[in-house]
Amino acid sequence: MERNAPVNSVYLIALAVSSLILVIDGVISALIFGIVVLASFLISVCVVSMVEKIADKHIRFLLFALVSASIITILKVTCSYIGVKEIVLAGERLELAILPCLLLAIVPIYFEQKFEAKEFFKNSILIAATTLLLILLLGLFVDVLGNGAFFGIDIKGFDGLEFFTMPYGQLMVIASLSVLFNMVRRAYIKKTRRFNMLVEKYKIQIREIRDTQIRVRAGERGEYNE
Amino acid sequence: MNEFAVIAIASILSSNIIACVGVGASGLQSEKRNFLFMLASSLALIVSTIISGLVCWAIYKYLLMRVGAEYLKLYLVVLMSVIMTFISRWVLKVATREIFFLFEVSYSLPIQTAINVGILLIVDMSRTFLNTMFELSMFCVGFLLVQFIFYAMHEKLDNGYVLKPARNVPVTLFMLSIVGMILYVIQTIF
User: Fold this and answer.
1) Residue A200 lies inside a defined structural domain of this protein
2) Residues of B in contact with A10 (CB under 8 A)
3) Which of A80, A94, B75, B171 could make an S-S bridge to A76, C-beta 3.0–4.6 Å?
4) What is the pLDDT of residues B118-157, one digit of tens each?
5) How far is A176 from chain B (nearest CA, A)?
6) Bridge-partner residues for A153, per DSSP?
7) Which residues of chain A lie closer than 8 angstroms to B169, CB-CB?
8) Within a domain: A79
């Protein structure tokens, strides 16, 4: 069966981040969850890429889910042994980090029509980095606007707004950020398309000049033969 | 009875967080206007969630908790969710070709697996069988309600004027935020 046309990856990233709104309450928790999502996604993608040519896309997704579950379980157990309060607290609900991983896996597993290692890893790293950026920005908004603090240090004269600490406020932030990300993506695609069109145009011109030169040379040779 | 009412309200409201993934995901689907597909896939998801929840509860309560291996809950949940989603995919394949085709081209398998995993992770499995099953079923009711509400809203929004970068998922998230605010007000009143 043919695959569907690739959808906008910013949508997937926004959905992936929105599944974390129950657990993000500041920059530190955002950083911990972001790193866990980044690590488990990239490691699982690397493992799945090994069976790219021998397994069906659904089987690859199954493998991805099991590998990322194993990584998050290991990280969760590790978190409980680290003596830092923030890490221990984040570790208690670390299993929810699997949701963004599962959603992000749609891009490398279902979108890639043809496997090319360079493109595959480039896209995966780009998606993971954008997700981390969005999670961090969300954490920063929650911390500064919601808690009235910056990395745990209180901002003088500002107690924060409750709206930004609630799930609906965080959804609003994610939606606004995804619009911003989408605008950047559209501008980049437009620029790339324009550049590709220019390259194609020059290619056609060069081909035409070469054809004309060949014709002229052939004509000259013909005159010489006569 | 009071305990059940509290569980029902909390589950229906908090399921919206997971539902937002499902509702937002419908924006990714090429055939999102097909009501029959939405109904069939939602029911398949609900049945698979309840069955996998039942099995997960039994294994968690009688095996993992007894041997002190609660940290394996995630692994168990993912495994059961994937298996049940594969079974529901197979059922759809056998039942109707048309819906199965839409299921395949709409990335429904990964999306359903993610939603199933999300619901099972939020549900508290250390409770009694009746409480866990009730919470699970209320989650499913909440999910179905949100799906129905947003199905009608998608129609309106797709036909309305929305800025290009804000179309699809961002506008759905804005809507969910507003609905969340309304639900929060209702929750604080009661």
Assistant:
1) no
2) 169
3) A94
4) 888 888 888 888 888 888 887 777 777 777 777 777 666 6
5) 7
6) A150
7) 8, 10-11, 14-15, 178
8) yes
CA-based nearest distance B170→chain A, Å: 5
Residue A150: strand, helix, or coil: strand
CA dist., res. A32 & res. A35, Å (int): 5
**Does A16 map to a domain?**
yes
Q: Is B117 exposed, middle or buried (0-12, 13-18, 19+ CB in 10 A)?
A: buried
Phi, psi of A149 (to 5 degrees): -145, 160
| Interface contact flag, B169 A73, Cβ < 8 Å | no
Domain count, chain A: 1
Q: And the tokens for A8?
A: 């906008």
> Measured in Å, how far apart are chain A's first and last C-alpha atoms?
61
Q: How far is CA A64 from CA A44, A55, A84, in A?
A: 6, 12, 30
- Predicted confidence (pLDDT) per residue in A57-95, tens digit: 888 889 999 999 999 999 888 888 887 777 888 788 888
Q: What is the DSSP string of A33-73?
A: HHHHHHHHHHHHHHHHHTTTTTS-HHHHHHHHHHHHHHHHH
ipTM of this predicted structure: 0.82
Q: Which amino acid is at B49?
A: T
d(CA A8, CA A103): 13
Q: Residue B109 is nearest to which of A4, A8, A61, comparing CB atoms?
A: A61
Residues of B in Cβ contact (< 8 Å) with A106: 107, 110-111
Residues of B in contact with A95 (CB under 8 A): 73-74, 77, 121
The residue range of the domain holding A52 is 9-188
Domain ranges of chain B: 2-189
Q: For residue A94, what is the DSSP state?
A: G
Average pLDDT over residues A12-32: 85
